[in-house]
Amino acid sequence: MKSFSKISGLLLIALGILLFLNSLGYISHTPWQLVRIYWPLIIIYLGIDGLLRPSGSKNIIFNSLVCLSGLVLLGDNLNLFHFNLFMFIDKFWPILLIILGISLIVKSDKK
After folding, report:
1. How do residues 55-99 score in pLDDT, each as one tens digit?
2. Considering only CA atoms, which of 67, 58, 71, 70 is closest in space to residue 103?
3. What is the DSSP letter of 1?
């Protein structure tokens, strides 16, 4: 429950800051447009939180992929680059096989 309280508190603070800056005229977007653009920050936070936990080393690949997914979605929302999920799956699905193979090797070495 502590983690939920921290996330809720951070989200309320961030929303309050955005609404305040919007009311002062510093932000031209509506708060909901900002939420639509920056929602991948939640995914990035969850991935970083998983990496920093004591048990995070067990799921380092998964949590790294969660962070990477959030970064890709955020980059696409900010128009830093264009991301097409179907093109990505079509071109890069063999990487999933490589990651799975590495994961199996790492797990077998720990036994």
Report:
1. 756 788 888 989 999 999 999 888 898 877 777 777 778 888 888
2. 58
3. -
